[in-house]
Amino acid sequence: MTESQRQALKNYWQDYGIEYKQGPIDLIDIFGRTAPTVMDIGTGMGGSCIAMASEHPENNYLAIEVHRPGVGSLLRQAHDDDLENVRVSSHDVIEVLQYQIPPKSLDEIYIFFPDPWPKKRHFKRRLINPEFLRLLASRLKSHARVFIATDWGDYAESILAAVAETPSFINLAGDGRIAPRPHWRPLTKFEKRGMKLGHPIYDFVFCIKGGDNTSLKS
Ligand SMILES: C[S@@+](CC[C@H](N)C(=O)[O-])C[C@H]1O[C@@H](n2cnc3c(N)ncnc32)[C@H](O)[C@@H]1O
């Protein structure tokens, strides 16, 4: 952890941090307003979350990241850019979703370049599986969408298999297909790393079945 990240954790957590507790949070209270709320899962060093929050002051951004230097880096940027629409939790996203996020409360969820766990014996550690998608579906509003990107081909296949097993989601690109890259998605640190390795990038957009937002727009 750099000194700047350590100082940011010490000085700015009180402005942006959400403590973990086993009880629902009030998103209106936490952001101090009613606005569409995006959960960005695994924000890494925070650059892409901060870029989106600056670009879209009309949205609330709830960053979830367990890596403390990354949280420090995000806090530093949020403070330096004077952002009011960002909050961060530094706890495991599964428990945050299970215990803190009320049902049908999120407008969008982003999972950009989740840890790939490339070795076969570690596949079970991957975040995205049918059970996790069911949990996401339960926390999304009826018009909501999930945006995912990965640079690992076999993870992409397992994400397609997982959504096919999740009746509450529709794959907007069509069954078994990847989506065009959303024009607004910032280039992330891990995406750059994947591209340097020559990996193709796979994007996904899933929406809640029966919702009112089922046309695929980038
Ligand atoms: C490969 S990095 C991607 C970071 C960023 N999205 C990017 O594209 O540059 C994945 C991040 O997810 C975080 N992460 C993994 N599992 C998590 C969990 N269960 N809860 C919260 N964060 C998690 C890791 O700490 C890591 O920073």
Helix content estimate: 25-40%
In the CATH hierarchy, the architecture is 3-Layer(aba) Sandwich
Tell me what portion of residues adopts beta-strand conformation.
15-25%
Number of strands: 8
Small molecules bound in the structure, each named once: S-adenosylmethionine
Total helical segments: 8
Identify the overall geometry. globular
| Class of secondary structure makeup | alpha/beta
Reported for the largest beta sheet, the result is: 8 strands, mixed
| CATH class category name | Alpha Beta
- Count of the separate structural domains: 1
Give the strand order of the largest sheet, numbering strands 1, 2, ... along the chain. 1-4-3-2-5-6-8-7
Give the N-terminus to C-terminus distance in angstroms.
36 Å
This entry's quaternary arrangement is: single chain
Mean pLDDT: 95
Element string (H = helix, E = strand): HEHEHEHEHEHEHEHE
Identify the CATH homologous superfamily.
Answer: Vaccinia Virus protein VP39
